[in-house]
Model the fold of this input.
Amino acid sequence: MDQVRRKVWNGALNIQIEIDKSLIIAKPEDKSLLINVRIPMDSYMSLYTDTILNRIKHFLRRDIVEVITYVWYEANDHVLLWNLPVGTLYDIIKGCEKDYLGTEDERDSYIKVWKIKMRYGADLPANHIPIINGLKQIQAYWMHQWKQASFLLNGSSKRVMSLHMNDTQLFWDSVINRSLELFEGIRSKIIDKVPRNIPIIIHEIEQPDRLYSSKDSNPDKADTVMTNTIGNLLAEYYDANSICDIKVLCQGIVVPHDLSLSLLYSVMSSFDGFLHIVIILRTD
Amino acid sequence: MSRLITSESDTDNDSSRSTTLSESSQHDLTRDVGTYYGVVGNEPSITMERKLEHYTRKLSEVGLEDKEDSSISSDSELLVPSQTKMKESIEDIQPQEKVQIKFIPIGSIATMVPTVFKISSNQPFPMILSFLKKKLKIQDVYCYINNSFAPNPQQVIGDLWQQFKINDELIVSYCGTVAFG
Done:
């Protein structure tokens, strides 16, 4: 179990970012400026914007502080919302591609790189939350996500709201510094061994995200076996005939429909307290 | 990957008109989201303000401005979700059904009268911010569910009501400043 958690936590994506030409001074032959980075899947893209801009600061037309608010990311003409985990964004955008996972030989023989664009402009896309207050704003958003998750897990947000200020800061620092031990130590103060509900966000490309909570546990009985599965969840949203054509992705892995949601949450929940699952409707 | 799609229209003209209104609403909501997470009183916010005025003028020109609140009134619908392959409900929410929202003021901010409103379940949460600002005639408002957390701006009101309702009402506390950090 711990090994899986560690793999999820350490999972990272190789990303090649094409910088918007209006952001930089012209390059010879109008070439694009490309930056290669490796970003943890279980984090927000916006946490790394400052670092990325610092790497290209000699090419920028303006100071970083002037442009950072007007920057966002896109892939395959879809806006990448910074407030979703990077891995979830990857699953949403790339999950429908046939070679998403590739064959075993392919996985061993070449490095996969996700090509995205850093866009810049005063007209920010709809649904993109403008980042004006840097990391503090991102931290505040993340804490509210945890409070919401805690409400579903425990019936109230008290466990998050009553965390000592030091613990709250350490919790956030563990995300920034990628310290799993520290993160798990504070996370365990928020989540019971048998949570009331499991907070789940269901993503599907070009569809609104859906908030779902699995309600099959009984907090009065610690030995209750949770039987709610991915298949049960799908049955609530999709027609029975189409369920067999649905591929479910979580942290970059195709998960079977008969997998228990509580098991999935315990090993694959994200750093914001939610279990993000991506629905891919097979069209072939 | 939330998005808003306009309702079906009878004519091409109607269709283009609805799209304009929907886009305006989206920009309006984006601005709301900015202030929601503490983005006020600086240059980007002023730029957004100008945009808002621009779109308000546009709305006035096509004579649709007042319809923005129709999602909150009991009659017509302005924005409906895209046609989706998902079933619309988990339990009892039907497409375009309205849910009850109870507004509770925090601190010295004005009280909403009445305190309970019916709002379309398919609206994104920032619609509530726009509604409160308009009703209370204030520039900034911060909202919290069950005196605990500020929801993700992409979340749909119906989902929040489904998960956090108390006696069939979603309790939304509001304040002129940050109340729960």
